[in-house]
Amino acid sequence: MRAKKMFGLSISLILINLAAIMERADENLLPAVYKEVSSAFNAGPTDLGYLTFLMNFLKSIASPLAGVLALQYDRPAVLAIGTVFWAVSTGAVGVSQYFQQVAFWRAVNGLGLAIVIPALQSFIADSYKDGTRGAGFGLLSLIGSIGGIGGSILATVMAGRDYWGLPGWRFAFIMVAFASLLIGLLVYFYTVDPRKTSPSHFGDDEDHESGSLPWTAVVFFTMWFELIGFDNSSSAGLNSLFAIGCASGSFLGGVIADHLSKYYPDSARIMCAQFSAFRASLSLGSSLQSFLKVVPPKHRTMIYAFDRAFEGSFASLAAPAVGMVTEKIYGYDAEGH
């Protein structure tokens, strides 16, 4: 089966990158409106960290489910299943009236992302040849970060006003839910699994469990900016600068790894991944090509899923830990004092 193209670009890769945009937008919605959610549900930083913990923990431990599904179904179908879970749960958070409801739907959201993320990563691994796979992963991260930036800006700016009697932060969740559902349907109907188009080439390697801990804790950035005096728009802008730096670093890391692998095929990607432990923004593009020399294409989704499970289950503890320190040691309360 031949992959369809539009203006010389693969429709499948266009839709996969759109899915990555919506996935990152969804992940960044709640941290962008922590302050408003805190006021709406009288929740402190520990409670907010608990919400992030639930999503990240489920996103991690449920990741092997993506591998199981990918063995039975084409990855576009797997992506569509995960997208439905995350879209429905995101919309449900927007209409929740109690904190316990928000917690439940964030857990369901994590389940949806657990299915989607490994499938996205293995799809990219099978769509690029050895010499360009690092750039492919880096580009996925770069484009996905656009969604993260957009989701964060959208939610932060909208949170400051009401829309047809609905608080802006709720309206942002509902908008992203509908957009995610639409992208999921397009992926299901118009994306062709690369396993059906051409044989895949084998690539390379990784390690980053401990490096994910601080990234989970930075979900409080927007709330912190707002509490120290920045308005919603300024907070969104500052957070976006940080995200742009991370996204650019991921793409650069992939390109560097591809170039060096021509001269050091057995060690270049390992060196880039280790360097990323010290310069974390270079991480994704150089490290997500893990295990490809020893894992056949059929099992790549499963391998990425288990990698997510090990990495994320530990990292998910960071957000509630930050919340507990903020309340127990520094005396923060739900009123922002």
TrEMBL record:
InterPro entries: MFS, MFS_dom, MFS_spinster-like. The keyword Membrane applies. It is found in: Membrane. The chain crosses the membrane at residues 48-71, 78-99, 105-125, 137-159, 171-191, 212-230, 236-257. One of its GO terms (molecular function) is transmembrane transporter activity. Keywords: Membrane, Signal, Transmembrane, Transmembrane helix, Transport. One of its GO terms (cellular component) is membrane. It comes from the Eukaryota. Residues 12-337 form the Major facilitator superfamily (MFS) profile domain. Residues 1-21 form the signal peptide. It is a multi-pass membrane protein. The keyword Transmembrane applies. Pfam families: MFS_1. Coiled coil: none annotated. PANTHER family: MAJOR FACILITATOR SUPERFAMILY PROTEIN, SPINSTER. Belongs to the major facilitator superfamily. Spinster (TC 2.A.1.49) family. This is Major facilitator superfamily (MFS) profile domain-containing protein. It comes from Zizania palustris.
